[in-house]
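Quick one: structure tokens for this chain, please?
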Amino acid sequence: MSDIFQEIDEDLRRDRLTQLWKRYGNYVIAAAALIVLGTVGIVGWREYSERRNLAQAQSFLQAMELAESGDTAGAKAAFAKLAEEGAAGYATLARLQEAALAAKSGDTAGALKLYDGIAADSRADQSFRDLAVILIAQHTIDTADPAQLTERLAPLTQQKNPWRHSALEMQALLAKRAGDAAKAKELYTKLADDLSAPQGLRARAAEMLAIFGG
């Protein structure tokens, strides 16, 4: 007798499964298809991204080779194209190189325009944006308003910023230019005593302290 009840129970289960499949089977198939397509899409996107990154790396190296060979015009054109068409990382690197070539050829205004663009670009990595500010300060240290440039460099002097030592050195030079010897000495002393600062920068700070007589 128990066998009969068991068979009836199994039949009922099969009927329920059949009904459930008829009702929801299409959704299950659609979900499975989406999972497969999603997996294929992810793999395809990774392969595309890798090919694109490789192509951009090659374009960047080719532009660098043009610059090193003396073909400044060709290099600038190549960097400008990569800056316009490349992904954020390579585009920013290309603009930095384009600006460096402009400065090297005497086009300081053009270089500063490019550096300002990088510094204001929210898509660029923050370290590149900060580097652009350092390079702006480097090219305008003798011409910019000392107070304004010092203020612009201030966020870069924070402890965790990778450019803090360069920013502090720029601020010391600006203080000296503004006639604030006490501030300049304070900053140079801070740099000379900072064991985490690059050795060359510490040496320059010590030399400036010697000039100040302290």
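Confidence is low (pLDDT under 50) at residues 1-8, 39-45.
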